[in-house]
Write a structure and sequence with these properties.
By secondary structure, the chain is of the alpha/beta class. It has helices at about 15-30, 45-50, 55-65, 90-100, 120-125, 165-180, 195-210, 220-230, 245-255, 295-305, 310-325, 335, 345-355, and strands at about 1-10, 35-40, 70-75, 105-110, 130-135, 145-150, 155-160, 185-190, 215-220, 240, 265-270, 275-280. A ten-stranded mixed beta sheet has the order 2-1-3-12-11-4-5-10-8-9, with helices on both faces. β11 and β12 form a beta hairpin.
């Protein structure tokens, strides 16, 4: 089979980690008889510097013509002084909207070999945890009405949180369908004690839950969820929540796994074409130094094989290779956590993963 993959390497460590994932995909293609064709497109700061805008028309057209897209990271201090609508991060929201991707899947799994890297106590992580964060991606406060105005106390800024029933229904269905393939438990996170948008969220999720009688559905306020993630992460299976809450909670969930450099993500819509990316940022402080951890991007590539191409065995192969490398004690700097152990570079740990495929 032939698959056309768009590459958005972006800024900072983006080119390094995407290149690592490409090597892994090529190796998997050789093993299983697939051909992966890669085409690079500009996005983010590098696009601003090159063509004057963060999301060029050619990039949007190229991504829409691809079978799926792999993204590195965007942004950095170089572009922090630009107006909000001109910053690299705006391009990320733009490509998600252009590709009509409203679901973000962020698995947060504690690998047995990394229990010591988790900041949580040993007794808390003893049982391990495997959480799937289902985040609504194209609605809510990030896409709501915003602006500046004269207020009661002088100049003020505002951002508006708004959700339609349709937006909540479709993300809730994704969560319940995901739960049906896992442990059949969904926790819906909101702030219904304060926000009207959360009250609509809760009402709608409960209505959709009736179509999935096998799935246990419970509500949890976002502040309590933040506490429970560090108190007892094993209680979570599938978590569904709004754009901003999901953004914050999934980063917290990633950190308790030991390193944000381990967390992949998939952004999906109604088609098989998705956008796959690590959840960490561009890490400009280590860009170009071959220090970045490419595992999150490599695992994002595995998610692409699983969710966009239905190549389950191939996806398992990558994930098992990562497991074996970690079990053998190989670590990048972020996973070493100051321990007196050898630290591998981005290219070195990629080679170890390739050896296991």
């Amino acid at each position: 089979m032939n698959y056309n993959i768009g590459l958005l390497k972006g800024d900072g460590i983006g080119p390094e980690i995407v290149s690592a994932a490409v090597k892994v995909l090529r190796k998997v293609g050789e093993k299983y008889g697939h051909t992966f064709n890669f085409t690079e497109y500009l996005i983010g700061g590098i696009a601003i510097d090159t063509v004057g805008e963060g999301l060029p028309k050619e990039t949007v057209e190229g991504c829409l013509a691809s079978d799926s897209v792999l993204l590195g990271a965007v942004g950095g201090p170089k572009w922090d002084t630009l107006p909000g609508d001109k910053r690299p991060e705006k391009a990320l929201l733009g490509i998600r909207a252009a590709m009509e991707l409203y679901t973000n899947l962020r698995p947060a799994k504690l690998y047995p070999a990394l229990k010591d890297a988790s900041p949580l106590r040993t007794d808390i992580v003893a049982k391990g945890f495997d959480i799937m964060m289902v985040r609504e991606l194209t609605g809510g406060i990030y896409f709501g009405e915003r602006g500046r105005r004269e207020g009661k106390y002088g100049p003020e800024a505002y951002d508006t949180e708004a959700y339609s029933v349709m937006e909540i229904e479709r993300i809730a269905k994704v969560a319940f369908e995901t739960a049906m393939k896992r442990n059949k438990r969904v926790i819906s996170v909101d702030k219904a004690n304060v926000l009207e948008s959360s009250r609509l969220w809760r009402e709608t999720v409960h209505r959709i839950a009736k179509d999935y009688p096998e799935v246990e559905c419970t509500d949890m306020l976002v502040d309590n969820t933040a506490m429970q993630l560090v108190r007892n992460p094993a209680q979570f299976d599938v978590v569904v929540t709004s754009n901003m809450f999901g953004d914050i909670l999934s980063d917290e969930a990633s950190q308790i796994t030991g390193s944000i450099g381990m967390l992949a993500s998939a952004s999906l819509g109604d088609t098989t074409r998705g956008l796959y990316e690590p959840i960490h940022g561009s890490a400009p402080d280590i860009a170009g130094q071959n220090k970045a951890n490419p595992i999150a991007t490599i695992l994002s590539a595995a998610m692409m094989l699983r969710y966009s191409f239905s190549l389950m065995e191939e996806a398992d192969c990558i994930e098992e290779a990562v497991n074996k490398v970690l079990d053998k004690g190989y670590r990048t700097a972020d996973l070493a956590m100051g321990q007196d152990i050898p630290v591998l570079s981005c290219t070195e740990i990629t080679e170890k993963i390739l050896e296991e495929i």
